[in-house]
Amino acid sequence: MEDFVDAFFNLDIIRRASPILWSGLLQTLLLAVTVVPVGAVGGVLLGLLTSSPNKTVRRSFALWTDFFRGVPPLVLLVFIYAGLPFAGLDTGAWGAVVIGFLLNTSAYYGEILRAGIESVPRGQVEAARSTGLTATKTMGLVVLPQAVRNVLPDLVSNTLEVVKLTSIASVVAMPELLFQARQAQNATYNASPIVAAAIAYFIMLWPVVRLISRLENKVLVARR
């Protein structure tokens, strides 16, 4: 038991590794507050385009959404980081992560919002248009607010997944939490920094998990 504790919960090693773990955590938070809004904005645009009355536009962007939902985000990230430089487009680690997350997460946000838009009764749109609202104002003032409310638990759940997915940035040597924890592990030959990183992720994301549960319960109650 003592060997187990020493290998995975060595407080002295965690204390010595805490400066780089802390810097990694800050990098993870910065990455999250960058890629989540970027992905969400892209998702709104895709949600609107895949709900377009124009069949060509709708099908084209539905195909775009399906493609980037189907490509593993790790493969996409490695391709952007290591593949695009051969075409003269060197985005660097930060740019590769932001572009990769924009393409991947916006596809998921877009599909969720498309479902939300389609869940709004057609009568709501017709009633809004009958009052003189333009199609743009109807979408922005009537349809989108209801669509977001209808799929809010799914949106928050997807946001949670996006934050967890930031850990794959370590494969392009971005010094986020997992990368720094692995560096500390390699330097100390001990798994305690990885355990500390896992605990940090849990503490950071557990409130969001509870929020999702509350939202899901409220939606279930509202539908009864």
TrEMBL record:
Keywords: Amino-acid transport, Cell membrane, Membrane, Transmembrane, Transmembrane helix, Transport. Gene3D superfamilies: MetI-like. It is a multi-pass membrane protein. It comes from the Bacteria. Residues 25-212 form the ABC transmembrane type-1 domain. Its main location: membrane. Pfam families: BPD_transp_1. InterPro entries: AA_ABC_transptr_permease_3TM (IPR010065), ArtM/GltK/GlnP/TcyL/YhdX-like (IPR043429), MetI-like (IPR000515), MetI-like_sf (IPR035906). It is found in: Cell inner membrane; Cell membrane. Belongs to the binding-protein-dependent transport system permease family. HisMQ subfamily. Part of the binding-protein-dependent transport system for glutamine; probably responsible for the translocation of the substrate across the membrane. This is Amino acid ABC transporter permease. It comes from Neoroseomonas terrae.
